Amino acid sequence: MRHQRAELPLKLDGLGPAREFFAGCLADARTDQESLWVAHLDDQARCLHLSRHAGDETGADFPIRQILSDAVVHGTTGIVLAHNHPSGDARPSDSDCRATRRLASAAGAIDCTVVDHLVFAGKDCMSFRQLGLL
């Protein structure tokens, strides 16, 4: 797992900016392995903290406790997730949906919202928010 502090005032205030930012993050990652990126936002959609969680060809670690711990430390009010599918299919899997719902439920307890979860596959990108999954 690698953590880095995002340069302020990076704003992820909508699908366009989030898609562009995470496409850049994933461009540097291996395409044959999943990677989960987590952006922690303040109440003005400015990125406070960014973390990456490496996976393998079948999935990426989805460390809900670590994500929530980071949210508390950084005073996060919103979370945007992004990960890639090496399979080439950008549709969220059942396990993607379950993990995202669990995180959204737990984040609500600390007044934090999962703003979106983007799934990338090649040049395709699907948004949980646009699909009505959040």
Explain what you see.
Helix content is 29%, strand content 31%. The protein has 134 residues and is of the alpha+beta class. It contains three helices and seven strands. The protein has helices at 15-27, 64-74, 94-108, and strands spanning 2-4, 35-41, 47-56, 59-60, 78-84, 113-121, 124-127. The protein has a single domain, classed as Cytidine Deaminase, domain 2. Strand 3 and strand 4 form a beta hairpin.
Tags for this entry?
alpha+beta; Cytidine Deaminase, domain 2
Major sheet details:
7 strands, mixed
Helix and strand content put the structural class at alpha+beta
State the fourth-level CATH superfamily: Cytidine Deaminase, domain 2
User: Which regions are unreliable across 5 or more consecutive residues at pLDDT < 50?
Assistant: 1-5
Instruction: Output the CATH topology.
Output: Cytidine Deaminase, domain 2
Shape, principal axes of CA atoms: globular
Q: Could you give the distance between the termini?
A: 26 Å
Using the CA coordinates, give the radius of gyration: 13 Å
Number of domains: 1
- Give me the CATH architecture, please: 3-Layer(aba) Sandwich
- Give the SSE string: EHEEEHEHEE
Share of helix, binned: 25-40%
The CATH class label is: Alpha Beta
